[in-house]
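Lab notebook, bench 4. Still working through the backlog of constructs that have no structural model yet. Next entry is a single chain of 111 residues. Request: give me the structure tokens for it.
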Amino acid sequence: MKAELSEGRLLSIVVPTGYPASVMDVAAAFSIADVGVVATGHELDWRDGKLISAVDASPAQLGLVASANGVADGIIRRSGLSLKAVDEEELATALLEGATNITSRRGLRLR
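Model written out:
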């Protein structure tokens, strides 16, 4: 599947740099995001669990968990969360495909 974004879309990346010292940075970032992504190159631990829970609880229209060797797939499936687990090599493709289904949030305007 070939995914294309229209010229009228803006991609912004918000990285909560204060984490893990402040979980509030994570909450603030996910509260304004249309897409929430947790990416880890190692086995999942409790910190990843906090981030995954934050994405699932956020208003994001798409939540992705990217992990090495698909380690998150079984965990996400068993958890009942509404997130999609992908292998880290598939993250860019999943983002593009998912972004085509994101609807605009009117009223959220930056000047």
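Notes after review: DSSP finds four helices and three strands in the chain. Residues 23-99 form one domain. Flag for follow-up if needed.
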